[in-house]
Each structure stands twice: as C-alpha cells, then as structure tokens.
Amino acid sequence: MEQPSQPTIARIWRGRVRRDRADEYEAYNYEVGIKPLIEKALGVQTFREDREEESEFMTISYWESVDAMARFTGADPTDIHHLDRDPEFLIELPKAVQVLRLLTAHGRGGFKE
C-alpha cells in the first residue's frame, strides 16, 4: 500500500481588507480561492485577525515539493495569482508569497516527522 505524501513545503499568502468587508471577503475567498486549493494541496489552513480598521487573512498550504506547488500555480510557485475580485477587496495586492521548508511538526494531530 502506498504511503500518503508528507508535506515538505509551506506556502504562505497574506492579504488585508477593510474591516467592514471582512466577512464578505472571507466567504468569497473560501469559495473561489480555498476550495480549489483544498483539492490540490496536502493541507490548507486559513487564519483571520480582526483589527479596528482592517482584517488580515493568511492562508497556509502544504505541499510535498516545490514541483507539486508549481503544477498547481502553473508557473513559479512564489508568483501571486490574484482572485478576480481581489482588487475590489484587498487594501493592497500582495506582491509575493512566502515559501518555507517544513522541518518538523510536533504534537497531536501534527504531520509525521
């Protein structure tokens, strides 16, 4: 039986929206951005921090390799692929994503080492 792939790469995207549009963006981002990502990545986590004037969203997706990430993005995995309505919602369009090597995960429910 084939072992499931383990993540070795985390891709981190961040974006900020006005606080009064955060709920609307959260729903839109999930439907248009996160759902397709869930189908391709080994795992996806989404975060939201509400501040007085703005909300920051962060998406972390986990990949078996940089090549696997590149197959999803269709090019350089560090390139930003904005959703169609991102210019309407985001305070500024992010210029880059962060790509990190996953060294270890600890605790219950974490990835295997």
Molecular structure report:
The protein is α+β, with helices and mostly antiparallel strands. It has one domain (9-101): Alpha-Beta Plaits. It is 27% helix and 28% strand. It is built from three helices and four strands. The protein has helices at residues 22-40, 66-73, 86-89; strands spanning 9-18, 43-50, 54-63, 98-101. A four-stranded antiparallel β-sheet has the order 2-3-1-4. β2 and β3 (54-63) form a beta hairpin. The longest helix is centred in the N-terminal third of the chain and has 19 residues, at 22-40. The protein is globular, with a radius of gyration of 15 Å. 15% of the residues are buried. The model has no long low-confidence stretch (mean pLDDT 88).
List the helices and strands and how they pair.
Layout: E1 9-18, H1 22-40, E2 43-50, E3 54-63, H2 66-73, H3 86-89, E4 98-101
Antiparallel strand pairs: 1-3, 1-4, 2-3
Put the structure in a nutshell.
This protein is an alpha+beta fold. The protein has helices spanning 22-40, 66-73, 86-89, and strands spanning 9-18, 43-50, 54-63, 98-101.
SSE order: EHEEHHE
* CATH class bucket: Alpha Beta
**Secondary structure category:** alpha+beta
Proportion of residues in β-strands: 25-35%
Q: What are the key terms here?
A:
alpha+beta; globular; Antibiotic biosynthesis monooxygenase; Dimeric_a/b-barrel; four-stranded antiparallel β-sheet; 27% helix; Alpha-Beta Plaits
